[in-house]
Write a structure and sequence with these properties.
The complex is a heterodimer. Among the domains of chain A are: 104 residues, Pleckstrin-homology domain (PH domain)/Phosphotyrosine-binding domain (PTB) (PH-domain like), CATH 2.30.29; 79 residues, no CATH class; 120 residues, no CATH class; 101 residues. Chain A is built from 22 helices and ten strands. In chain A, the strands form two sheets. Chain A has an eight-stranded antiparallel sheet, with helices on one face. A two-stranded antiparallel ribbon of chain A has the order 9-10. The radius of gyration of chain A is 37 Å and the shape is extended. Chain A starts with a strand and ends in an 8-residue tail after the last helix. Chain B is of the alpha/beta class. Chain B is built from 33 helices and 18 strands. In chain B, strand 14, helix 25 and strand 15 form a beta-alpha-beta unit. In chain B, helix 14 crosses helix 18 and helix 14 crosses helix 19. The chains are: A alpha+beta, B alpha/beta. Chains A and B meet through helix 12, helix 13 and helix 15 of A and helix 3, helix 9, helix 13, strand 9 and helix 23 of B. Chain B: This is DNA repair helicase. Chain B: It comes from Artomyces pyxidatus.
């Protein structure tokens, strides 16, 4: 995480350091290590600053869901402070404008009543406020189930929260739903995430995955600055890369800095030296060589370009015989005429060091990605003469094997023993009354039944009427579709959005409802303790409450739509499936209302 | 397989084209082995492949085949028979040496020479008489204690196995194989061991006439034939030869003082015209001409005396040196060369013919060591012999400059064979059945025409695939609609270079794992790689994949190749840039994740300004009526097809084949996009090129490729059975259908029917699962229709 800008600033009357990194705006109190306040970029909503003339240099950043925001008081000497603030302002303005466009595009206006969830002070468990209709279960139980939120292996709530937030930021649809339901307190945070653990897991996995090294060659290209000078920006990363790529530079650095040369001097001279030009990944480097002036220090380290046909550095030829090109080369004496000059390798001397560099660079990258593990040379070793059978893997044509049948999933049944015993007993009990079937008779019977089947088939007449109806229904179907296609989509955007919101909300309620009715899927890798039956029942009741309100909402939309001049029917048809689903859930609830012992 | 059987029965030759990656090798082997095992005559199989990796692969397949045959043998007796089956592979000393010091040598020639020093008869005898006086190779010595024919237990030994056996038992793997040659049932080695007279004389002389010869991957066989009779001389070589001649003279003086009788003996022998019968392993250099062209008379008198011969050689080398001073290109026939030689130096043709033989005899008499130092002289002697032996089908070309615009002379004297039929003729004449097979030998009639033989069977087989496992695409325009072409005039045009680059970049973005790109020549690859780098195109590629490039050094390239494979295995993905006729394009498979896409940047035409090629084309036109353009196109396409064919192995494998080149405007060089050119591609590739895929721009090609990859990455259809994979029942059904047809046609097909039964059994036992008819499928289709 790199810091874009930083400044000394007071926050809540405490002295500290304000930093803007590439993901967060954070403030750290003096003497503490962890930032006390950290606001993700995506949460910055607006920016206010004190007047130029005012004695204090202040900057207020408001965040989504909290219009008050955070006020920072820049404490450096005045001109510096103003400059610092300007730096922050430019950066933050960019961020905020980006946020706005993103939000406006995908998300409904955030509900005003929403409680702030964004700014997280370190250590505090950030959680959406508990809903009013929280089930009256024992407090301890609820805490434990909340703390160990589903989906994350670590039970660190802050970490959890971060994950969730990232998921929400990534998927605006989910964020909208979340705002709609959780922030309004209709369902709790953990309920919302129940059944969506996979999203969190995926996020966690994506985060833990280590990013490999980028593949590009280290090739610092100078930027031209006016006045005919060139400029190369040296970052620690670049230095590290250069040292790794060209050990000789590291050696030179070691021997000369800070003894003979200062750090800056070292780099300056390096970039002007022949050494640098020979390191440039460019065929033109050789051409520039006579332009570059000699450098007593660096020229010592200059190597001759590795442009002979054979590489300077001979390496052990311990390659798999299946790809050993040298073996072919040495298989028989070379005969015949020389190849024409286009087919002679290495005619372009200048390109050879470059090509070698590519190969070496790739190899180095490959090695770092393998962490030098012993598995690195596994292929080679296994292909060693001691175990020739491994070569067969390369010869094998896998399509000639039988398609593997999957072993299937073993039915993990409780009391399997007893089940089978019971069945066996039942079967033996049934066995007795079953009349023995005389196969021959049965066969003859079947045969007789089948006699003259062709005649029967010939007599077969398809009822005309049935055919007609089928045809007319098909025609009607096509006509209806055509009709639909023809009609324009004329629901106003506003109504349409309402419909959508209503629909997604109802869906979420349904999901919650059914998941509380049915036993949870056990194979989800979740540490969450399944809610107790009471909790579930309570939840289900709550959901039923919400669900039963759905028709009203739909009605409201229908009326609104009518007012806006939209065909009522259209909206009704649109909302019908969800209403049906709600009805189904409600009727299910009513029928099983007398609480059954086991679902 | 039936066709093959027919060939074997008819003791004739055949040309078979089988798609690559469909189990060509194992099908050939399994039929021939069962044929061998069935008949008591035990015809030997000589299986020639192109490269050492391919030899090793063929050996491994054979080993596995035999393991299977042993496990399924019906009686104990048969099992014993299968177990006694022997298969060995032969390669050079360099590849088979396990001597702790000699094997460290980098150059094959040095290994050969040092090995000879340690193992030749004279040294060995001296060591026996007086142990410790000379160095010998203990691995070689250990072999002497074992009875011939028992050097290694029966079975199939891959090269790696033989090496390991040698290490375990302290015996020399090279001589084990060499001495076991008369006893084995299958021997696998490279083309040169049969075609190059210098090697064949030593190795393949004793092969019986009824042996079955298979040339696998034989699409380049004509080039191997040409190579084996061609020779190049350069000025450094002549200098070194002159030095060697002087050294020889010194040696002769010395030996005259110490042991003059030796030279006398030799002289006497030569007068009598005795062909020396030295142990074949000691021959360091046999005659470079074909056996039938050897003279069986006594060496002419003027070179019988050692000092005379040395003087003769000196004169000849001097003559060649003066020829090299000429600064313009000279092309002449061997006859005119000899005439000129005679006019200037009074060297006659006859003694020249004996040059190689005489040198060999002299070297043996002098018991020279470190023969690799005399290598250049051997070349000169070989040149002398060849030039005086052959008249027709050869040409001498002196090129004073390497390239058109070079100013520093670097003269090369080419002695070029133009007619591939000359070298392969003895093989066709000597062996009764010769099978030539490859994935890409379309058009089929080209090979019989070029090699001058009449095949009994000539067949090309298509590939049955349940799904289109590969997608050939022809890109003719860049996204900017600039036509792309690898023609010499435009190939360095920045627009073309950029378009080629963007193809690479785009494909490296969308293709998983490995991408292999082939260039038409080394020169072009090297310049374009540099240009891409300066244009920043490679930086784009680095973002997605690692880059490996073929280098001039074989070992270096092998290591790059290994790293490339590792990068493909671990998911990092890599691009391999190599050359269509180069080292990598031959014998290295890029199956599965090693090559999800093969990109050909341009058609791999040969460099048409090459004088040898021009001469060859002229010869082909005059002698065999093969038009220049026809041959060039054929040659380019076989190489291109070979490159793209490397990517496919097995029917579940898939890959993209991208040909990037537009059709040229001039009629001489036609490019991929031309329909008539495509017709030259092997049938198995051609049948999948659609009209739309034959003329695409880069962005269109990308869309098509993405779509293809999405569909192909779906689960491979389980229902391969019955379409491309036959169960035993299917085979029987097909056979009975075939039989019925045959019975109607003629009654004499009896022999074939038996064969079909015999051959089929071994092959089609891969799966025993039930055969589902299409009934189930149509039901489902019906159900879907209702919806």
């Amino acid at each position: 995480m790199s810091t874009l800008c930083s400044a000394r600033a007071k926050f809540k009357k405490l002295q500290g350091l304000l930093e803007l990194t590439d993901t967060h705006l954070q403030w750290t109190q003096d003497g503490k290590k962890a930032p006390m306040l950290s606001v993700p970029h995506s949460d910055a909503a607006a920016l206010f600053s004190s007047k130029e003339s005012s004695p204090q240099v202040k900057l207020r950043v408001s965040v989504y869901g909290d219009d008050d925001g955070h006020t920072f008081n820049f404490t450096s000497a005045r001109p510096v402070a103003v400059a610092e603030r300007e730096a922050f302002k430019t950066e933050l303005t960019n961020i905020i404008s980006r946020n706005r466009t993103v939000r406006e595009k995908s998300v409904l206006k955030p509900p005003v009543s929403a409680t702030p969830i964004a700014p997280v002070s370190n250590g505090a468990v950030a959680r959406a406020p508990l809903p009013v209709s929280r089930p009256s279960t024992s407090r301890a139980a609820s805490v434990s189930s909340d703390a160990r939120t589903p989906g994350t292996p670590s039970s660190d709530p802050a970490h959890d929260f971060r994950l969730r937030k990232k998921v929400l930021v990534k998927t605006p649809e989910l964020a909208a739903l979340h705002r709609e339901l959780v922030m309004t307190g209709q369902i709790t945070e953990s309920e919302f995430w129940e059944g969506r653990e996979h999203l969190l897991l995926a996020q966690a996995a994506a985060e833990t995955q280590k990013k490999g090294r980028p593949g590009q060659l280290v090739d610092p290209r100078p930027q031209a600055v006016e006045g005919g000078e060139v400029k190369i920006v040296i970052t620690p990363q670049l230095v590290h890369d250069i040292f790794e790529e060209f050990p000789v530079v590291a050696k030179a650095y070691d021997e000369n800095v800070p003894g003979k040369l200062s750090e800056a001097e070292f780099w300056k001279r390096y970039f002007q030296s022949k050494l640098f030009h020979s390191h440039r990944a460019s065929i033109r480097s050789t051409a520039t060589q006579h332009v570059v002036k000699d450098d007593a220090i660096f020229d010592k380290y200059l190597e001759k370009p590795d442009d002979q046909l054979e590489p300077r550095r001979q390496r052990e030829s311990n390659v798999d015989l299946f790809i050993d090109l040298e073996a072919t080369y040495e298989d028989h004496e070379e005969t015949g005429n020389e190849k024409d000059f286009t087919m002679q390798a290495g005619k372009q001397r200048g390109a050879l060091p470059l090509i070698r560099k590519f190969n070496e660079h790739s190899e180095r990258l490959l090695k770092t990605s393998m962490y030098g593990s012993p598995a690195k040379r596994r292929r080679v070793e296994s292909a060693d003469s001691s175990d020739p059978w491994n070569h067969y893997a390369q010869l094998d044509l896998d399509d000639l094997h039988d398609p593997d049948t999957s072993p299937g999933i073993i039915l993990d049944m409780q009391d399997r023993q007893r089940y089978f015993e019971g069945r066996a007993a039942g079967a033996s009990a049934e066995e007795v009354p079953r009349p023995a079937v005389d196969l021959r008779v049965a066969l003859q019977e079947a045969k007789r039944d089948l006699e003259g089947w062709s005649a029967d088939l010939a007599q077969l007449k398809i009822e005309r009427k049935a055919g007609d109806t089928a045809l007319t229904s098909m025609t009607a179907n096509v006509a209806a579709r055509l009709d639909v296609n023809k009609r324009k989509n004329d629901i106003p955007e506003d109504i349409f959005r309402q419909m959508r919101t209503c629909q997604t909300a109802a869906n979420e309620f349904l999901r919650q409802f059914w998941s509380s009715i049915y036993p949870p899927a056990t194979d989800l890798q979740t540490l969450a303790t399944p809610a107790t039956p009471q909790q579930k029942a309570a939840k289900a009741t709550r959901m039923v409450g919400y669900l039963s309100k759905t028709p009203e909402k739909v009605n409201a939309i229908v009326i609104a739509a009518h007012a806006a001049g939209v065909d009522r029917q259209k909206v009704e048809i649109g909302m019908k499936p969800i209403l049906d689903a709600v009805d189904k859930a409600l009727s299910f609830w009513r029928t099983r209302k007398p609480p059954a012992n086991r679902p | 397989m039936c066709d093959l059987k027919r060939t074997l029965d008819a003791t004739g030759h055949c040309v078979l084209e089988m798609p690559s990656g469909t189990g060509k090798t194992v099908s050939l082997l399994s039929l021939i082995v069962s044929y061998q095992q069935f008949f008591p005559t035990k015809r030997k199989l000589i299986y020639c492949s192109r490269t050492v990796p391919e030899i090793e692969k063929a050996l491994a397949e054979l080993k596995r085949l035999m393991a299977y045959r042993v496990s399924t043998a019906e009686t104990e007796e048969q099992r014993e028979k299968e177990k006694n089956f022997m298969g060995l592979g032969l390669t050079s000393r360099k590849n088979l040496c396990i001597h702790p010091e000699v094997s460290k040598e980098k150059k094959g020639k040095v290994v050969d020479a040092r090995c000879r020093d340690l193992t030749n008869a004279a040294t060995v005898n001296r060591a026996r008489e007086n142990p410790g006086s000379v160095d010998v190779c203990s691995f070689h010595e250990n072999l002497a204690d074992i009875e011939g024919g028992q050097l290694i237990p029966p079975g199939v030994w891959t090269l790696a196995d033989v090496l390991q056996y040698g290490r375990d038992h302290g015996t020399c793997p090279y001589f084990t194989v060499r001495r076991m040659m008369p006893f084995v049932d299958v021997v696998i080695y490279s083309f040169h061991y049969l075609l190059d007279p210098k090697v064949a004389e030593q190795v393949s002389k004793d092969m019986s006439k009824d042996s079955i010869v298979v040339f696998d991957e034989a699409h380049n066989i004509d080039n191997v034939c040409l190579e084996s009779l061609s020779i190049d001389l350069t000025r450094p070589m002549l200098d070194s030869a002159a030095r060697s001649v002087n050294k020889l003279a010194d040696q002769i003086d010395e030996i005259k003082k110490t042991d003059a009788s030796k030279l006398q003996d030799e002289y006497a022998k030569l007068v009598e015209g005795l062909q020396e019968a030295a142990a074949d392993e000691d021959t360091f250099m046999s005659n470079p001409v074909l056996p039938e062209d050897l003279l069986t008379e006594a060496v002419p008198g003027n070179i019988r005396k050692a000092e005379h011969f040395v003087a003769f050689l000196k004169r000849f080398v001097e003559y060649l040196k003066t020829r090299m001073r000429v600064l313009h290109v000279v092309a002449e026939t061997p006859l005119s060369f000899l005439q000129h030689l005679k006019d200037i130096t009074y060297i006659e043709r006859r003694p020249l013919r004996f040059c190689a033989e005489r040198l060999q005899s002299l070297v043996r008499t002098l018991e020279l060591s470190r023969l690799d130092e005399y290598n250049s002289l051997q070349k000169v002697a070989g040149f002398a012999t060849l030039v005086s032996t052959y008249e027709k089908g050869f040409l001498l070309i002196l090129e004073p400059f390497e390239t058109e615009n070079a100013t520093v002379p670097n003269p090369i004297f080419h002695f070029a064979c133009l007619d591939p039929a000359i070298a392969i003729k003895p093989v066709f004449e000597r062996f009764s059945s010769v099978v030539i097979t490859s994935g890409t030998i379309s058009p089929l009639d080209m090979y019989p025409k070029m090699l001058q033989f009449t095949p009994v069977v000539q067949e090309t087989y298509a590939m049955t695939l349940t799904r289109n496992a590969f997608l050939p695409l022809v890109i003719t325009r860049g996204s900017d609609q600039v036509a792309i072409s690898s023609r010499f005039e435009v190939r360095n045009d920045p627009a073309v270079v950029r378009n080629f680059g963007s193809i690479l970049v785009e494909y490296s973005k969308i293709v998983p794992d490995g991408v292999v790109a082939f260039f038409p020549s080394y020169l072009y690859m090297e310049s374009i790689v540099a240009a891409w780098n300066d244009m920043g195109i490679l930086n784009e590629v680095w973002k997605h994949k690692l880059i490996f490039v073929e280098t001039p050094d074989a070992n270096e390239t092998s290591i790059a190749l290994e790293n490339y494979r590792r990068a493909c295995d671990n998911g990092r993905g890599a691009v391999l840039l190599s050359v269509a006729r180069g080292k990598v394009s031959e014998g290295i498979d890029f199956d599965h994740n090693y090559g999800r896409a093969v990109i050909m940047f341009g058609v791999p035409y040969q460099y048409t300004e090459n004088r040898i090629l021009k001469a060859r084309l002229e010869y082909l036109r005059d002698a065999y009526r093969i038009r220049e353009s026809e041959f060039l196109g054929f040659d380019a396409i076989r190489n291109a097809a070979q490159c793209v064919g490397r990517a496919l192995r097995g029917k579940t494998d898939w890959g993209l084949m991208v040909f990037a080149d537009k059709h040229a405007t001039d009629g001489k060089l036609q490019r991929f996009a031309r329909a008539d050119k495509r017709a030259k591609l092997p049938r198995w590739i051609n049948q999948y090129i659609t009209e739309t895929a034959a003329n695409l721009s880069t962005d269109m090609a990308l869309t098509v490729s993405k779509l293809f990859m999405r569909t192909i990455s779906q689960n491979a259809g389980e229902n391969l059975t019955g379409v491309s994979l036959w169960t035993l029942e299917d085979v029987e059904k097909a056979q009975s259908a075939q039989r019925a047809a045959e019975a109607e046609e003629q009654a004499k097909a009896e022999a074939e029917r038996a064969a079909a039964g015999g051959g089929g059994d071994d092959e089609m036992d891969e799966d025993e699962d039930e055969y589902y008819g299409d009934g189930g499928l149509s039901d489902r289709a019906l159900a879907e229709m209702e919806v």
